[in-house]
Amino acid sequence: MPRTASKPTKKRSKPYTVTSSDTDPVPSASSKTKKSSKENDEKYKLFNKYANTSSGVIDPEGIEKLCSKLKVSHTDIKILMLAWKMKAERQGYFTKAEWRRALKALKVDTIKKLKKALPELEKEVRKPLNFADFYAYAFRYCLTDERQNCIDIGTICQLLDMVLGSTFRDQVDHFVDYLKIQNDYKVITMDQWMGFYRFCNEISFPDMTNYSLELAWPLILDNFFEWMREKQA
Amino acid sequence: MMARTIDFAQGWRSMQIGITKLEKHVEGLPGHSLNSEQYINLYTTVYVMCTQKPPHDHAEKLYNKYREVVEEYTKSTVLPALRKTYDDEYMLLRVLLERCSIHKKMVRRLSRIFHYVDRYFVVRNSLLSLEEVGLACFVDMVYNTLQLRVREAVIAIVDKEREGDDTGIDRALLENVKDIYVEIGMGKMKRYEQDLESFMLEGTASYYSRKASRWIQEYSYFDYIRKSEECVKKEKKRVSHYLYASSEPKLVKIVEHELFVVYANKLLEKKHSEFREIAGGLEPITNIFKQHVEDTDGQDTAAIRKVIEVHDKYIVYVTKCLENQTIFHKSLKEAFKFFCSKAVSGSSLSDESLATICDRIIILKKWASEELSDEAIEKVVKFLAYISDDKDLFAEFYKKKLARRLLLNRDASDDHERGIITKLKQQFGGNFTYKMEGMVTDLTLSRQNQNSFDEYVANNPAAKPGIDLSVTLLTTSVWPSYKTFDVNLPSEMVKCVEIFKVFYETKHKRRKLTWLHSLETCHINGKFDQKPIDLIVSTHQAAVLLLFNTRDKLNYTDIQTQLNLRHEDLVWVLHSLSCAKYKVLIKEPATETVSKTDVFEVNSKFTSRTGGVKIPLSHVDERKKVVEYVNNDRRYAIEASIVRIMKGKKVLGHEQLVSECVKQLSGMFKPDVKAIKTRIEELIARDYLERDKMNPNMFRYLA
Lengths: 233, 703
Description:
The complex is a heterodimer.
Chain A: H1 30-50, H2 60-70, H3 77-86, H4 96-106, H5 111-126, H6 128-142, E1 150-152, H7 153-164, H8 169-181, E2 187-189, H9 190-202, H10 219-232
Antiparallel strand pairs in A: 1-2
Helix pairs in contact in A: 1-4, 3-4, 3-5, 6-7, 6-9, 7-8
Chain B: H1 8-26, H2 36-51, H3 59-83, H4 89-113, H5 115-124, H6 130-162, H7 171-184, H8 190-218, H9 221-239, H10 248-261, H11 264-281, H12 285-294, H13 301-320, H14 325-343, H15 351-367, H16 374-386, H17 391-408, H18 414-428, H19 430-459, H20 491-507, E1 521-527, E2 532-538, H21 539-547, E3 553-555, H22 556-563, H23 567-578, E4 585-588, E5 599-602, E6 612-614, H24 623-649, E7 651-653, H25 654-665, H26 673-685, E8 689-691, E9 698-701
Helix pairs in contact in B: 1-2, 1-4, 2-5, 3-4, 3-6, 4-6, 4-7, 6-8, 7-8, 8-10, 9-10, 11-14, 12-13, 12-14, 13-16, 15-16, 15-17, 16-18, 17-19, 17-24, 18-19, 24-25, 24-26
């Protein structure tokens, strides 16, 4: 979502000073504006507890603090899911707007409530339609550079474990093994990333009887398939 | 309605008059037409006779009389007419058709007259209608007796046409014949199928069975195939003239069965034996390869001549069989390779070795005591290029060898090289050869340039190189890429380089010169104890040797520091001078390989029978580099092809994209499917393509 610079939001009935990092292009419904300003206050208060006062955003340190309060590890998939809900753009940072977006959607404004909402969030994300979107988001989230469009093998292995580990343990384990051994690829592209998700969903494992080299599976999966076959022989 | 009853005999008499008239009329005889009054009278007579009270109701009698009339008519008029035609197929058919149509007319007219009989008597007693009676009569008396003759007539005509005699074939007539069968069958196809179609199919089968048994003996495999396919085509066209469309597939199947299926095994045998024969004819070529391996100086020119002969003979043979050209070419290639791999065991017929063989043939020709015609050499090279698997790989190796020949082996004439390149161009296209032509042109231009340089030196007292310098100018884009070395040249050479640089700048201000010292040759005179010897060495070797003009002994490090060559390269140079055939330098210790601690000095005792010695410098294996270069090239070619295809089709499935790509590139090399997949993924990552959201096996072009 593009962030517009210092544009005052139109639908607030009570004008109050907003800092530039606060701009939010998401319009709130007019009927909610009166209520929302009070609620927003709560959310921003919460935000400020973890945000870095000079940069105005929650940085990695803040996230650590948040995680310990929520009693989840910062490598827990729930944090990534939260980021997804926020549509957070930059890994390791949450902006005020992103924060507000998620908390509003989850209908929470305290840490306690947020903690309670996390399992629900996970359920929501795991719905097939949402999960595909989440899976793609996870890849984009890890891109460190705007110009970059691929992620190194090491990070991918961790990401796969985090994102697909609980649902496709077997596939992830084998594929991660393979990724570490092979020499053809040093980075993974979005196409290959999504390809693996399709693979997990469509191909029976470990027999892989319905896999075909004739189709347009990414080459890395073809190689993975052949490697598995050799191992199984 | 008349008051008195009509007596049958009397009534019939009056009928008979009318009927006779009618018979004459349908024959076309003038003056016998019945006017409407006469018709009405006849009709009324029938009516009355049918409606009279018994015992005067004569319907049954009339019915039977009707039949008699038709039968009599048929016997007296139709049969005799047909009998006259027995010898002539055409007449028979013609008369038959005529008679059939007249008979129909007759029956119709009669039925109209006797109509009242149809209306009540026939219906009440469930009998055949009058028309049906008429038809049955025709069938019994005419059709059944003549049917065989009719069929035979048809097949005789068709066979004549098959033999090529299609003069006077009356197509219209033939087309109408089949209609009779349908009419006889009362509109149904059964009679047609049973009586005409099955007979024609049988006749066709036996015709082609006869032909096939002869052709399989007389024709070669490809001629047989071609002729058979022609026949099938012709039969398809012909069948509509005498049979219905429904019969076509049945007929074609029979023809194909007789020509192909029955002789399937024999055909296969034929193919293989002819193949073996060709392969046998290639045996003389093995001599050439033996020579290649045994490295003899003399060559078997007779063998080379035989190659040409064989090559010519089979190329003619192949170009005749147009339809099966690719298959045959492939077979020829395989046969060739098979024999050669047998003769030269262990040596693979890789594209590189083919290029090497070309190189030797081109070079040997010049050193041979016996002259090989240029034409002969051109043909052999063309042939070898042709059997290479990957044209682009062969081209790269050939180019490298050509470069070496042009630069280091000045004996081969430029025109000759050009001639060979032209032959290759004719067969494989300009893409394949334009760089090679460029290289040869460069040499010609270099010579002209050299003349200018010599003039410049002569007229310019300041520009005196002090040694004979000749420079070859290479256009970078067409020559293979060579490594450049930052070697410290001896001062004499540095001077030369400078002078030439100045000269060149007067002609071409903007151009940059990069010196390829690794390809240069130097003539150095070495004053050895026994006698002075001319050494022909590379620039790097010369640089090393000249160091010893100022120092007697030098260790490895000294040499390296002074020359600034990399270890990998210097080792070779020193090796060639101290450990190889001509030991111009003495190495301490005198081991087989050069190491960084060795010490070198001039071998003053060095001598040779001849006054001049060429010291070769073995070069690093270039094969890997060539392969790498070609692979890179291929990557671009595949990508370009994919983009081209997708731009045109916008959306395309994976399988089709791959096969289109292979097809497009088939002229130069066979792209590996994995390579294509990799390129596709690359293009996806670079946003040229995307996968379709619904079907991940489909790709979409992103404008």
